[in-house]
Specification:
The chain has 597 residues and is α+β, with helices and mostly antiparallel strands. The protein has 4 domains: 166 residues, DNA primase, PRIM domain (Alpha-Beta Complex); 95 residues, no CATH class; 126 residues, Arc Repressor Mutant, subunit A (Orthogonal Bundle), CATH 1.10.10.10; 129 residues, no CATH class. 51% of the residues lie in helices and 10% in strands. The strands form 3 sheets. The protein has a 6-stranded antiparallel β-sheet with strand order 9-5-6-4-7-10. Strands 2-1-3-8 form a 4-stranded antiparallel β-sheet. A two-stranded antiparallel ribbon has the order 11-12. Strand 1 and strand 2 form a beta hairpin. The protein starts with 15 loop residues before the first helix and ends in a 16-residue tail after the last helix.
């Protein structure tokens, strides 16, 4: 059975009658009729009664059933972690290949959201734990949210999506006869049920921006700040850039649950607080999902006196320790003063540039209050969602009009940047009276630039600049040339130079043709080859991280071994068959890219 041309050979296209027979075999009571917000409208004991209720209630849009014992349901959702839709498809194909390898009947369906999939399979009890472990590995490998449903509830195959999205059956070998007969006794629960990739690991004492913002959110709740006040004092991270709705759903909701566990509240009281924090997230998860994903881990951390509580960070290490309410009030005073001082400047430009100026001012205000004014232009552009070129122009205009001033100029190296203070006009516009701590802060402004694309471009720029700074320092001390130095940064730089030189030498039409060829090639890869390619990309990422630690002098013995064994052709990508056939022998006298220091 398949609607996908790449499905298992010999499978036939599903018919409405066949899907209805599968629904009858796969699902059992209770059947829940839901509305567009996933709220229960009615319950039924049979599928026919549920379909009748679906037509009787005006708000009813779909039907959810409970999988019978022996049937496992996996929900894949890349949007929940910000992963691309292709990662969700690759994850579902990996699960399909695992099931096919064990000879287990399965069914794969699109869930309706981009890249989202449902995988239904008959699962013997002796393979359930192994399958749960593999689901976790797939989630970590592709960076997508994967949930092995407990309880095993899912929308019927013949039921429409609650938002009207297409959700066809893609492929599968599952038939009504494959569903096991009703078994007595308690159904086994897998050891691992929910799998959500965690942020990339960091060195001891180092934390990602999201971890720091989550820690500050928890600290604000402990001090009694509400949602609006907490939002005003936070810096910039991925979930905050996506707006207040996503912050409320994915960070505030979780932080409220964490603090409820720390304060020793019971589950019922914590659930009520979580529902108040984000009613939409609570409806999506349900109490069972919230308990499994957030509440039980939070209770375990709260009860463990030896837990390092790495996420309970009260502030960014670069920030002074201060009351979040006072910091929020200072931020509002600074922001108001800068906007008032820049009012005549903003009025000179068209509306689009006005929005960019306001966004840069808001980002600068955060830096002035929380980072002592130190911020580089790329970080400023990312936090304002304004292109780097426009950010430079706006910053120059603000400096010329006395709204900001440069207190310390860039001193060289990869870690230094300008430090700004309020200019004379902004100083004069500062309110004489301090803002009360119970004020209503003004929402921040953001530009129209794509923050993810901008960050990727800036990462490449920062990498090249850090390499250059590291090489200058290393060759100054040793007297070596960049083309002959054996420093890890020099090897990486030569590889990047060679790659960039070859690519830029190609005409534009040839570059576009090669992009099309690469996309076509990736589409033709078999699942096992695609997995090897992603594994090879993971190894390349490990090498890049090892080189980054070596550049800052924080390398460990494992980094030295990894860089020593790294192939000299790492920059060749798929042209280097190492990704498919394993490491190639290293030539005795490799030819180096000749570039003088």
């Amino acid at each position: 059975m398949s609607q996908n041309p790449r499905a298992t050979p010999g499978a036939s296209a599903p018919t409405a009658e066949h899907l209805q027979a599968l629904d009858q075999a796969l699902f059992d009571a209770p059947y829940i009729v839901i509305d567009q917000d996933n709220n229960k409208v009615a319950t039924a004991t049979t599928a026919d009664d549920a379909r009748a209720a679906l037509h009787q209630h005006d708000l009813a849009v779909s039907i959810v059933g409970t999988a019978r014992p022996g049937i496992e349901v996996v929900d894949i959702d890349p949007a929940d972690t910000g992963a691309p839709a292709e990662a969700g498809e690759a994850a579902s194909e990996d699960l399909r290949d695992w099931l096919t390898g064990y000879g287990l009947p399965y069914l794969r369906r699109a869930s309706g959201r981009p890249g989202g999939h449902h995988v239904i399979a008959r699962m013997p009890a002796d393979l359930l734990d192994a399958f749960a472990d593999y689901v976790g590995d797939v989630a970590k490998h592709h960076g997508v949210a994967v949930q092995l449903r407990v309880p095993r509830t899912l929308r019927l195959l013949t039921a429409p999506h609650r938002h009207g999205h297409p959700a066809p059956v893609l492929d599968g070998t599952l038939t009504p006869d494959d569903v096991p007969a009703a078994a007595s006794g308690r159904t086994k629960t897998p050891k691992r049920t929910a799998h959500r990739p965690t942020p990339r690991s960091s060195e001891p004492g180092q934390h990602s921006a999201s971890e720091r913002e989550y820690g500050r959110t928890c600290a604000a709740i402990r001090r009694g700040l509400n949602f609006t006040q907490t939002w005003a004092i936070l810096g910039d991270c991925k979930v905050i850039e996506r707006g207040q709705d996503d912050f409320r759903r994915y960070m505030w909701f979780r932080a409220v649950t964490e603090i409820a566990a720390e304060r020793g509240l019971d589950e019922a009281a914590a659930w009520e607080l979580a529902r108040e924090a984000s009613a939409a997230r609570a409806r999506t998860l349900g109490r069972d999902g919230w308990r499994e994903r957030y509440w039980l881990p939070a209770v375990e951390r709260a009860a463990d006196a030896t837990h390092p509580r790495t996420r309970r960070l009260t502030a960014d290490p670069q920030e002074p320790q201060r009351d979040p309410a006072e910091q929020a009030a200072a931020l509002e005073r600074t922001r108001i003063a800068m906007h008032e001082a820049a009012a005549d400047l903003i009025a000179k430009f068209r509306p689009q540039r006005q929005k960019s100026i306001r966004a840069v001012i808001d980002a600068l205000a955060v830096a002035l209050v929380s980072r002592d004014g130190s911020i580089d232009v790329r970080t400023l552009a990312e936090q304002a969602c304004v292109s780097k070129g426009v950010t430079i122009q706006v910053k120059a205009d603000l400096t010329e009009h006395g709204i900001i001033a440069v207190a310390e100029k860039y001193g060289g190296g990869a870690d230094d940047c300008h430090r700004y203070i309020l200019g004379p006009r902004a100083e004069q516009a500062l309110p004489q009276n301090e803002t009360t701590r119970w004020y209503t802060p003004t929402p921040r402004s953001y530009g129209h630039a794509n923050p993810q694309r901008m960050r990727l471009h800036h990462v490449r720029e920062r990498t090249r600049w850090q390499l250059r700074c590291t090489l200058e320092e290393a060759t100054r001390q040793t007297g070596e040339r960049w083309s002959t130095s054996q420093h890890p940064a020099a090897k990486t730089a030569r590889s990047l130079w060679a790659q960039r030189t070859r690519w830029e030498a190609l005409p534009d039409d040839v570059q576009e043709q090669k992009r099309k060829q690469r996309r076509a090639f990736l589409g033709r890869l078999a699942p096992d080859e695609r997995k090897r390619w992603f594994d090879w990309l993971g190894r390349r990422d490990t090498l890049a991280q090892a080189a980054a630690r070596a550049r800052t002098g924080q390398d460990i013995p494992e980094d030295v071994l990894a860089l020593t064994a790294a192939p000299l052709t790492v920059h060749l990508g798929m042209r280097d068959r190492t990704w498919l056939h394993g490491p190639a022998p290293v030539p005795r006298d490799p030819t180096l890219f000749d570039r003088a220091a």
